């Protein structure tokens, strides 16, 4: 009996799938390593994850889906970003402070020019401080002794000085009155407190006749004899302590010691 010959079936060679799958695995591993070595960016990570999932997912779970967790920016990177932001804020603040200082210096130059033009040296002085631009006016320019009524010459000076206080943007301005330590008690003023406050208020009223100035930015104070600039040991020193001060506040913090 003759043996039947076995028919060989058609068989497709699939041996290439093994090295191909290995190659894909190595490529994925390479991409992951390169990604891990670079700076982590949440948005880039999400886009890369979606690409991997669409290209290599099989059966529903993608390669990166198994361990996907919200990506956090490393602490060191956060600190670097915060430091950069702080440096930018400091630089901006420094620029604003410098510009504000230059504005106050411009106002000071204008007032000093007015003082020289009107020959008021010794009666009006200006000084830049960390608080702002301080204008000091001795009492004999505006007031008689023991009085808070502004003299005629003082009215003219107050109106002219008010033009020099106009600025854009405007500044807050504090006007304060000061006296010497000689007690006062009359029908008009019960104490040096009362006298100093009324001098500041009366002077401020003439300043605010200038409609270019905003009254909401002005305030008046009285210190009596409690803030002398020199000891009350002589008639000359007491005259210096009897004064009105105009403080132009800066819109940004300044430091004149820089």
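-> sequence recovered:
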């Amino acid at each position: 009996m003759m043996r039947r010959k076995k028919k060989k079936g058609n068989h497709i060679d699939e041996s290439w799938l093994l090295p191909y799958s290995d190659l894909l695995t190595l490529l994925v591993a390479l991409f992951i390593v390169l990604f891990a070595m670079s700076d982590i960016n949440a948005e880039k990570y999400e886009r890369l994850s979606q690409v991997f999932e669409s290209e290599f997912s099989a059966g529903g779970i993608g390669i990166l889906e198994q361990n996907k967790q919200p990506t956090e920016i490393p602490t060191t990177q956060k600190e670097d970003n915060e430091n950069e932001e702080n440096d930018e804020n400091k630089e901006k603040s420094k620029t604003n402070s410098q510009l504000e200082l230059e504005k106050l210096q411009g106002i000071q130059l204008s007032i000093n020019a007015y003082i020289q033009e009107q020959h008021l040296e010794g009666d009006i002085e200006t000084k830049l401080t960390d608080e702002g631009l301080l204008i000091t006016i001795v009492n004999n320019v505006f007031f008689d002794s023991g009085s808070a009524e502004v003299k005629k010459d003082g009215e003219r000076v107050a109106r002219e000085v008010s033009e020099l206080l106009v600025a854009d943007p405007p500044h807050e301005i504090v006007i304060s009155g000061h006296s010497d330590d000689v007690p006062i008690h009359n029908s008009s003023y019960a104490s040096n407190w009362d006298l100093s406050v009324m001098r500041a208020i009366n002077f401020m009223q003439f300043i605010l006749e200038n409609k270019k100035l905003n009254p909401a930015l002005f305030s008046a104070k009285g210190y009596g004899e409690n803030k002398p600039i020199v000891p009350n040991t002589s008639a000359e020193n007491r005259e210096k302590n009897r004064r009105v001060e105009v403080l132009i506040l800066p819109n940004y913090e300044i430091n004149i010691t820089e």
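The chain has a mean pLDDT of 81.
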